[in-house]
Specification:
Subunit structure: Homodimer.
Pfam families: GAD (PF02938), tRNA-synt_2 (PF00152), tRNA_anti-codon (PF01336)
Helix content: 25-40%
Catalytic activity: tRNA(Asx) + L-aspartate + ATP = L-aspartyl-tRNA(Asx) + AMP + diphosphate
Radius of gyration: 30 Å
Oligomer: single chain
Family: Belongs to the class-II aminoacyl-tRNA synthetase family. Type 1 subfamily.
Strand order of the largest sheet: 6-9-10-24-23-22-19-12
Subcellular location: Cytoplasm
Strand content: 15-25%
């Protein structure tokens, strides 16, 4: 007999009745029923009920067992009485009578319980992650993650992609986030960087003639944490293709992603039509470049109805350049109570409030109610209602100013309205490609900088770069799903002269570009093919499939909100010997 087990804790069935078996696992739960001890024995695969009565020679040893002790048992498989069958377990028709037991690993008093659904502080869960991972929900999440990665790999191979590994230690580059720097022992005073993404290397692979590349790639960014973003490292499906246009990339990645969500989405609807929405329209309609299309609400510009109107706040606002009034339709939201609640929401978000109009039944039809309706009069109110396609029992909310000042709040208000009014479909995955991103933006000091990936090809090529940089669009695209960005990508800038000009507009001279990206710039002078690709966030995909709100629920050993590993005590202080070897000195923190 095997030293530890003849079967897993999910393998035994009625066909095994009468067999002598050996099982190993953890004591999940112990129950004492009138002197007979019942133990749920758990391993990675499932649970088997084992029991021991006072007639067993092992009874005195079984009495000593406690939760989460790792044990091995020998016993005989018996059938459960029909009324005691547990249909929820694959092993629910049998139980094992213990004849012998060995403790493989005893456990101290537990800092958190594995059995049950108790809530524990995240700090406790992360410090004792190895215990947290024993819980059924976490085992399911990590198994799902592994299965998703396996399926992604197979789907990419099925489309004639090959997986290639790119370096983990490389040079620092401005990709939009802070690098993790690694000091060099052999080159004192110089530093490597952990790659924010395999961006340059995958483009170099295209120059090298590898037509289709993919990789399940680790990426490292020193970022502030969010619920949907790891503060240190993450994994992505990274892919690149030669001799392609934007639509070719879409046509390649859609069956991969759609197939993953159909395979692992638990029966939820997966949209097969993925609309293309310009960045400009996404901002107008949804207040974000990662819209949740399960919510049917589209915001609209209603500025013309408030120009010169009796509502002085909006009328005067529209006299300023670059201002707008936007409406958020709220079907079924036509009650003063709901309107007041949304007004309070806007105030919590830092705005003075949101104007509103709602329509109710009246003699001879309907009437518009609310302060705005009284100020602008029935003719303008009716024009707004018709533009928004609203009727009795509906409402509309209004925000005004420069879009960059209120757009995000408007987007969040749209989400809240959709959820509270039951308009958002919860059992669905809705995708959209966001395209036509601006290449450049102004930073806080008014300087021109890249707004997205700096290696993207501008639409219109060199000619487009001769005018106003803020009007230049790039062949850049994101895939949004249920309010999250899942994919980001671009058709790349493979021509050195266009690349130099693109970087020049962002304040990088030719010498600086050659210094920072010398390998790629040099390579592009030796017959670079047109190419493009994208990257999909593995962690975020699994988070959506697992129906989790926090990305740490689908990462084996995540950092906490302060980018600390409480289990391994990272980051840690280097020893003096390490610092001397690297010729580094640590300065005390600024007071």
């Amino acid at each position: 007999m095997h030293a530890y087990r003849t079967h897993t804790c999910a393998a035994l069935t009625r066909d095994n009745v009468g067999d002598t078996v050996r099982l190993s696992g953890w004591v999940h739960r112990i129950r004492d029923h009138g002197g007979i001890l019942f133990i749920d024995l758990r391993d990675h695969y499932g649970v088997t009920q084992v029991l021991c009565d006072p007639d067993s020679a092992a009874f005195s040893e079984v009495e000593k067992l406690r939760s989460e002790w790792c044990i091995r048992i020998d016993g005989e498989v018996k059938a459960r009485a029909p009324e005691l069958v547990n249909p929820k377990l694959p092993t629910g028709e049998i139980e094992v009578f213990v004849r012998g037991v060995e403790v493989l690993g005893a456990s101290k008093e537990l800092p958190l319980q594995v059995f049950g659904d108790q809530e524990y502080p995240e700090e406790t869960r992360l410090k004792y992650r190895y215990l947290d991972l024993r819980r059924e929900a976490m085992q399911a999440n990590m198994t799902l993650r592994s299965d998703v990665v396996r399926s992604i790999r197979q789907r990419m191979w099925d489309q004639n992609f090959r997986e290639y590994q790119t370096p983990i230690i490389t040079a620092s580059s401005p990709e939009g986030a802070r690098d993790f720097l690694v000091p060099s022992r052999l080159h004192p005073g110089k530093f490597y960087a952990l790659p924010q993404a395999p961006q340059q290397f995958k483009q170099l692979l295209m120059v090298s003639g590898f037509d289709k590349y993919f990789q399940i790639a680790p990426c490292f960014r020193d970022e502030d944490p969010r619920a949907d973003r790891s503060p240190t490292d993450f994994y992505q499906l990274d892919m690149e293709m030669s001799f392609v246009e934007q639509q070719d990339v879409f046509d390649t990645i859609q069956p991969v992603m759609q197939g993953i969500f159909e395979e692992f989405g638990g029966g939820r609807k997966v949209d097969s039509e993925w609309p293309l929405i310009s960045y400009k329209d996404a901002a107008l309609w949804y207040g974000t470049d990662k819209p949740d299309l399960r919510n049917p609400i589209k915001m609209q510009d209603v500025s013309e109805h408030f120009k010169g109107s009796g509502f002085a706040i909006f009328a005067k606002l529209l006299e300023q350049d670059g201002t707008q009034i936007r409406a958020i339709p709220a079907p079924k939201g036509g009650s003063r109570k709901f309107c007041d609640r949304m007004n309070a929401f806007a105030q919590k978000e830092g705005l003075p409030g949101m104007g509103y109009i709602f329509w109710r039944e009246a003699e001879g039809g309907m009437e518009a109610a609310g302060p705005l309706a009284k100020n602008i009069g029935p003719e303008r109110t009716e024009a707004i209602r018709q533009q928004l396609g609203l009727g009795v029992g509906d409402a509309a909310f209004f925000l005004g100013g420069k879009p960059e000042a209120f757009e995000r709040v408007a987007g969040r208000a749209r989400v809240v309205i959709g959820e509270e009014l039951g308009l958002t479909e919860t059992d669905r995955f809705a995708f959209a490609w966001i395209v036509d991103f601006p290449m450049y933006e102004k930073d806080d000091e008014g300087r021109i900088d890249f707004s997205h990936n700096p290696f993207s090809m501008p639409q219109g090529g060199m000619e487009a770069l001769q005018g106003d940089p803020l009007q230049v669009l790039g062949y850049q695209y994101d895939l949004a799903c249920n309010g999250y960005e899942l994919i980001s990508g671009a058709i790349r800038n493979h021509k050195p002269e266009i690349m130099f000009k693109a970087f020049e507009l962002a304040g990088y001279g030719e010498d600086e570009v050659k210094k920072r990206f010398g390998g790629m710039v040099n390579a592009f002078q030796y017959g670079a093919p047109p190419h493009g690709g994208c990257a999909a966030g593995i962690d975020r995909v699994v988070m959506l499939l697992a129906d989790e709100a926090n990305i740490r629920e689908v990462i084996l050993f995540p950092m906490n909100q302060r980018a600390e590993d409480l289990m391994m005590n990272a980051p840690s202080e280097p020893s003096n010997e390490q610092l001397r070897e690297l010729r580094l000195r640590v300065l005390p923190p600024e007071s």
